[in-house]
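We treat protein structure as text, and this decision shapes the records that our systems exchange. We quote a single record here, exactly as it is kept in our systems:
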Amino acid sequence: MTHINKIFSSVLLLTFVAYSAQAQAPANNWTGFYGGVNGTVQAATSSATGTNTYTTEAPVVEPTGGSTDGPPVLQISGQTVVQTEPIADHRTRTSAGAGARLGYNYQFGHMVIGAESDFNIATFSTGAAGLGTGVAGPNEGYATYTHGTVVGTVRARAGVAFDRLLVFGTGGLALSDLRQTLITNSGFTVSRHQTTGWTGGGGLEYRIAPRITLAATGLYSDFGNSALSAGGGTSGFVADMKTHFFTATIGVNARF
């Protein structure tokens, strides 16, 4: 009889522990794989700073009042001098597109950690500008041009679940087919591909059905600097180009 009481007491205790754990656990568990699709709005900003070095013919500086008794002539006709002017170009363009994502969450208590990979197709181009606006010289005018189509990320996520609502922060690696180009009126063109950078941001996800959620995410992605140069010696351009994005997505996820 003593053994039966012990067994019965143990069963009651296990039942109580299981019931208490279930009562304390969130009603909506976020653990598992998921995938989804989304709409995208993206703002791409490209900036270039540097120098335009060129040679030009020096002006004739006459003596004061045209008199031979005036100050000496400083430069003679036909003499060339090297001059430098700054390059400064800053442009932002907005584009829209669509994308998809795949990820995994693991929940313990109200904390949720996981990883997500996504890609968004939203063609962006800062356009060519500045050609023909420079000063006189062999390299008159310049343009900085940034173009790309795809921006993707591979990120860690961490957040807090409030039953149906998940609030999270995220950060990781940014990937793109970004191409940065420097063009001059004198025919110099040089391009670099800037394909990797970093990204960070956050978002919200809300469960509207047992396996379906609505998700909104905002990400800042920075692809760093790219040094471009065209020409050389006493005639050429040197530019430091930088590109970053802000990407906002709203989509639907399905849990497997």
